[in-house]
Every structure is written in structure tokens, then in C-alpha cells.
Amino acid sequence: MKRKDYLYIFLLIMIPLLFLFIITSQNLLFGNKVDWFNQHITIADALRHAIREEGTIFPTYLSHLMSGVNIYYFSYYGSLRFDVLLGALFINVKMIDLFIGYQVFLLILTNLTCYFFLKRHLKRNDLCFLLSLFVLLSSIFFQFHKQVMFVNYMPFLFLMLRSIDHYFINHHFTGIIIWGSCIVLHSYFYCIACFIVCFIYFVMQCANHKEYKKPLFHLLIAYVGIVLLTAIYTIPTLYVIVDGSKSVSSTHLLDLLMPTFSLKGLLYNNYGCGFTYLIWILIVYGLYKKKTRLLSLIIIISMFCPLISFIMNGFLYARSKILIVFIPLIILQAGLVLEDFTFRINYSMLILIILPLFFITQPYLVCIDLIVSLTILYFYKHHQQIVFIYLLIPLLVVYFNNPTTSFISTKQYQNYSNEEVETLIQRNKINTLVNLNQSKQNMNQTYQNQITRISGYTSTNHKLYNSYLYDTLKLPISINNRVAQIDQNHLFYLKLMSVDSVVSKKKIEGYQKVDEINGLKLYQSQDVKPIAYATNQLYSQNQFQKLKYPYTLDTLYHQAIVKDGNNDYQSQFIKEDMGLKKEYQIKNNKKTHINYQLNRKTNNEIIVIEGDVINHLPLQSVSITINGIKNKLSKSTSPYYNQNTHFTYLLTAQQLSISLSKGHYDLKNIQTYSLNKNALKNIKVDPLSINKGKDILNGTINVSNDGYFITRIPYDRGYQILVDHQEVKSEVVNEAFLGCKIKKGKHQIQIKFTPYSYRLGFILSYFGFMVVFIHYLIERKIKDERKY
Description:
Strand order of the largest sheet: 21-9-24-28-27
Keywords: Membrane, Transmembrane, Transmembrane helix
Pfam family, one: YfhO
Number of helices: 26
Distance between the termini: 25 Å
Protein name: YfhO family protein
Strand content: 15-25%
Number of domains: 3
Organism: Faecalibacillus intestinalis
């Protein structure tokens, strides 16, 4: 390398560190207010503790989230990422420090790998340096402190592309396998799109070398090697995806075929590549040169056509964030065009260049950008260094796209992290905790796996558990999606899910305050359903599914819902007229607040209000809050439309404080019910006496009568129930949970779990590792022989 190379490398390392210093000097963290803490930090912490608990880098179970769940529901976040593994090794180091450090490292590594990738194609090192800075100042800077799985594969994508370059020199492809596997482990959702980009690049290199058959066969072998090497991760994850659920807004074919002239996948947008107008001009110029025409055409079609985004997003939606994977090809194309650039414009070129001007929502910024870009390109041939002045434009865009308000402050982080809750956990005996303070932020927080949570958020959702919460219990949905399983102050939710402890600033009905710190109160109750128990009070599943809400609630509390149940339990809920009309028409220009006193005819303490919502302005959301309980119907264009058209409220007060969002909507079929709180007492079951161990559940039980063994563990394939060391058939009980038939008498119970297809994945990965390692040794031997 030349002396200037070392200078450029030094600057590419120091500039991101300078940005980090500027951010942290304002008492900000390199993280975002939304999603960053409640998903990336808390899940990474739970994953590293799972590694420690199971004593393997391939853990299978998260016992402390969602009441116990297959860990592959959380592999979307990269359960085998290097920072998670490092976190398991240094368990006493805060995960936030490791996480931020690793993301900054990957950001710097992206700069460096981009620079070395471009050096293989461009003659001018200063141009490689400039274009590497363009990548730094693209959307990846935003996403590295926001949704990191959108970009944390990027340095490995550049390394995979460099390995393709090396292949056409020495015909070795082990590097392709290794870096491709790193992409999968960091972001399996983006790996297919990355491999499509690499395939495009590989075919282009085949064309340059005028050889196709053998290289493409080798690439196929490399891709098979990646599949084998990562099978322990991808195969169980694939099953989870297929068997899970994901609620997304519908996409129409006509919309997919309509061109996106705004180029949101390429220009300015943080959820696209986030480049500036100069890049678009260079791509257009590339169409008019034979050497660069094909790549420009591929990029333009990909950026204009939503169908490409739809396909690359796994047919879920046509969001442009997936187009971030094209950054290496786009920046390479910009370099190839700029290195041999001559300023000229014809009519067709001019039309393509200015076309996005009429569709981008920041016309003033774009016009300034266009004028500066054309001016610099006009003088570029004779004054090539002038292009460095253009860095002011992407710097300006990064400044506006990353305001200080987009970063999380240290004070906000302290509020989210709930250190007071950790103190309460240390001072009290807690098994299962519901935390109603900052519930959206802490839903994945396990506090070093000291307690069990029944909440949880992951994009690959547990279908049965989610349906139980929102279709059976009909918990209120307060946000735009129904994927997030947020802790709620709902009496049946707390009692049925064995919640013995609740952290809240407000009083919790049915629980007693036992501790308090800085306004946060800890409430506890032992009058909850056991974690696992036996009962002979069995209610038919078919009959239960015919019951209307809320008659299902106390039936579920008193009975075990099984396939062969025969009890004729009668719900103790009564329908009661409390003075509310059957329907209301709401036309609000702004949010309104009203108070209402219910007209009661009974002394029952538990009240249920339910009704349907018809939104006449579907492009606007609807929310109604009663006594702090919020229901929301998201707008129809929301990426994860929540479909919450039936609002329910479980209350214990007759005085209603109601907040109505602005909009035009109807409330119909309003019904009110009541229940005496004594209906939730004196439940006789045979609880499991739990022993500590490495099993999912282990203990002894005295069963009074033949019946069913019931757990609160969400049912999944892969569980094994052993009664007195003999495996029995597991079933879905209570609509979503693991259970089995059990005979009268004293029994030893063990529950074990192995994810479906985990053993197949392990065998394939072991085989893949051996094959790749042997192939690497062969490549090394061939390389050594060539030296002589």
C-alpha cells in the first residue's frame, strides 16, 4: 500500500469516531428512541444469558420471555451475532456498552471494506476514499443506531464481493462461504437479498472474464456451503417463520407495477440507500456507456419498480429498506462512471436526471443538490479534486436526517432501563413479573434473566400465544401492530398467567403493595393460577369456541379447556345495562376528553365494556382510552395493520375518564357486563412442586383425580413431557398452552425441549463445517504449491 492509503484508512477510522464523540458529548447515546432499546439491547441481553444458562453457543430456549419460548423466534435479531457471543463471555459487562461498541466497529469496518473493494476496480485512491465517505454518509449511519439488522451485514457483504474478486484470480471460494455465513448470522432476513446482489456481481464478472459454466457451478457450491454451515441457525428459524404469524397491510398487484419515481429507495430516505442526487446523475450517465450500461439498468429497475422490493422482502411488503443491499453496487457504479467522466447531456439523459424532481418531497433541498452536482460535474474533468466539495451536501443531509432528537439521551436510557426495578427484584422474591412502567420499552427485558416475563416482541411471532392474548383474552391493542405482546393491567391476564408480582405507579386490583422505590410500587399476590397444575375440571374446546366474550374469561379461569372436556360450567358474567347507548357517531376535529358515570344495577366490581369500531377515515388511526386503558385501530396503510376493530375494556371503577381521538368513526354494538370479584377465588387445583434443574420444568405433583396436567408454557412442536420418566403425548390446552392427560397419584414431571429440525440443522452444520474446513486446507495446499 502507498503512504496515502494509510492516511485514508486512518481517516476512515477516525471520522466515525469523531461523529460518535460529537453525539456522546451532548449526553446522547449511539442509539435511537424507538425500537433500539426495547428490541436490540434487551433481546441481546436475554440471548447472551440464554447462552450462559445452557452452556452452549447454540442455545435453544428463552425461558424468561413470553412465558418460555423457542429461541428461534428471536433469531431475527441475530442470536449468534459476535457481540452476543462476546456478551456471553463477558457477562458482567453491560450489554449496551458491548452493543454500541460493536455497531461502531461494524460502521468503521464498512468504511474500510468499501475502500478496499473499490481499490480493486478504481485507479484513483482518493476517489475510493471519497466514495467510502459517501457510504458512511448514506442511510447506514442512521440505521446503525436504529434498526441494526438492516445494515449490520454490510461489511461482510463488501468482504463477500471482494472474495468474488479473489475467486476470479485464484479460483478459491472459501472466502465467499465464510463471509456469506457471517451475513446470515447477522441478518438472516437480508441474506437472500445480499446473495442476489452477489449473484448479479458474480455474473457481471463472468461476463468480463468470458467464462460462465465453471464459475457459476462454483458459486452454486459456495451457496450450498453457506446453507450447510448455517443450517443450525437457518433451518429451525425457517420452521418458525412458516409456522408463525405476521400481520402486514395488504399489497395490491397494481401498486407493485406502478413505478416509484420518487426514488425513495435510492435518495435521501433513511429507509432506503439514503444517497444524494449526484449518485443518481452518475447512474444515469452509466446508461450511456457500454461498460457500465447493464449495471445502471439493473439499479434503475430495482429502484423504480416496487415489485423488486416486494420479492426481496419475502413477499411480505414492498418497503424500500431492502434496497439498502444495493449500496455496494451503486457506489461501485458511481466510481466507474466518475473515474472516466466527461460532461455531456442529451435530451433523454436530461429527462431521466430531472424526473425525480417532480416526486421527491423536499424540492428545495433537491434543487440545491442538483445545481451543486451539475456544477461540480461540469468542472470535474479539469479539476477532479473539486468533487470533494460535494461532501458538504451528504453531510447536510445526514445532519437533517439524524437530528439530536433521533438519538436516545442518557436520561431516557436510565428511564427505560428501570434500574429501580432491578433493586425491587433484588429485595423481593419474584417469579413472574409484569412491569407497567415504560411497558413498551421493557417488554423484552429480563433483568439478567432473574425473573420470568410473559411479555415479548419479535417479528416472527408465536401464532398460538399471540392469538390467545388478542383473540381469546381480547387484550386491548394500544399500538399500530398486534405483534408486540405488551404487559397490561388486566386482571384475567395477570391471574391466568401466574403473575405473582406487578411493578406500577398505580394501584393494582387484587394485589397488595409490598415495596416501593422512587414512586415505583411493587404489588404481589399468591392468589394466581400456578405455573403448572393438574385438574379434573375440564371444558370442551368445541363448546368453549362457541362462547361469546366475556363469558370466556371466567370459564377459562375455572376450567381447563381441552379437546375431550365435558363440564357444563356456567359463566358468572352477567349482561348489565349501565346507561351507555348501543352506538355513537364521533366527528372530532381534535382529541376530546369526557367523564361519564355508569348507571349500575349490581354491586359487581369487575366491569367489561366492548364495542365495534367503524373508521370512516381509514388513512387516519382511531384510539379510545378509558381509565388509562387504550385501544387503537391503526390506519389502513400502517405496515403492520393491527386489525383491531373490536375494542374491549376491563375495569374496576364506575367513574369513566374517556379520551377520544380526532377523526370520523362510529362505535357500534356497545355491550356492558359485570362480574363479582369473588368469582376469582377458591380455585382448587393440584400444583406442581417445582425443582430447580436444566429441564424446562421439573417437579413432583400429587394428582387428586384423573384429569389433565396444565402449564402456562405456549405450545410448540419440540416439547417432550415425561411422567415418571415415560414420555406422554402432549396436547394444546387452554387454547394455546402445553399440557397432557394425567392419572391420579403422585408423579414426577419433566418437560424438555428441542426445537423442531434442530438436530437436522446441527448435523448439516457439522457436516458443512468439516467440508468447508477440508476444502480450505486443499485451497491452501494448492496456493503453496503455486509458490514453487
